[in-house]
Structure formats: C-alpha cells, structure tokens
Amino acid sequence: MKQKKYVPWGRTLTTQDNFLGKQRTNSKKKRPVVVIDNNERNELAVVPLSSRRGANRTRLKNYQQGQSYFKHFVEIEDDEGKPIVINRKFRENHKNMDVSQRDVSRIRDKVLFHSKPGKQNQEKLRILRNKKSRD
C-alpha cells in the first residue's frame, strides 16, 4: 500500500485567480493560497493571500515582513467544481514559504468565526471533512 503524502496546514500553493472558486474572472494573475484544512483524500481547503488591503482582508504580520493579507473566503473547489488537490492548477511551494502554525490558527479563527462569510466557510469545511476516502 502506497503511503499518502499529506499536505501540511500552512503550506502555500501557487495558482491563478481564474482557478479559484466558481466566480468567473479573467484574471490570470498568480496568487498564493494557504492550506488551512484537508481531508482523508488529501483534498484541500485554502484561503487566498493578497498583497493589498481591502474589505474582507486581514493582515498577516508575521508572514513576508507583514506585506501579506489573507482574504476571508475559504475555497474547497477549483473553477470546474472539482476538489482542490495538488496538480497543474495548484502547485505546492517550497516549505520555506509556509505560513506558521500560529498564523494558520489565527486565519482559521478569523475566517470561520469572525468574518462576514464565516457561516459559508464553516459549511464548506463541513462538506470537505465529510467526504470519505474511496480507497
């Protein structure tokens, strides 16, 4: 039996804006996302990072000299409605780009309990966790 390689919480992935979520955008801009949860099938829940401040964003003081913000939206599906996994759309960054565990817990707390889309985010995580392994 092959050992599955789990993606640790806090790992960042690189993707393009148009691969995130169902909303249609023509932006091909590369964007980092941070993994905040996963399930048995190694499908990921990610939160997009941003370099600009704005509505529904919070600054990450300890990441990239405080130049980064995270958006308050959790994504569990790509633009085609498929689960987010490491593939050509979502490339894993080197572990020296990881967000610290302390920051991951701050992000999780904020997006799940202290943001406008908190209820939808909780529902998305519930859906992700309830998917059972097919192995």
Considering the chains and any ligands shown, give keywords for the structure.
135 residues; alpha+beta; 6-stranded antiparallel beta sheet; 19% helix
Task: Describe the overall structure.
The protein has 135 residues and is of the alpha+beta class. It is built from two helices and six strands; from the N terminus they run ββββββαα. The chain has helices at residues 101-113, 118-130, and strands at residues 12-16, 30-38, 44-50, 57-60, 68-71, 91-92. A hairpin with a 7-residue loop joins β4 and β5 (68-71). The radius of gyration is 14 Å and the shape is globular. The mean pLDDT is 91.
Uncertain segments are none
Instruction: Determine the number of helices (DSSP H or I, runs of at least 4 residues).
Output: 2
Number of strands: 6
Instruction: Report on the biggest sheet.
Output: 6 strands, antiparallel
**Sheet/helix structural class:** alpha+beta
Q: Give Rg in angstroms.
A: 14 Å
**N-to-C span:** 10 Å
Strand content: 15-25%
Mean pLDDT: 91
Write a brief structural summary:
The protein is α+β, with helices and mostly antiparallel strands and 135 residues long. It has helices at 101-113, 118-130; strands at residues 12-16, 30-38, 44-50, 57-60, 68-71, 91-92.
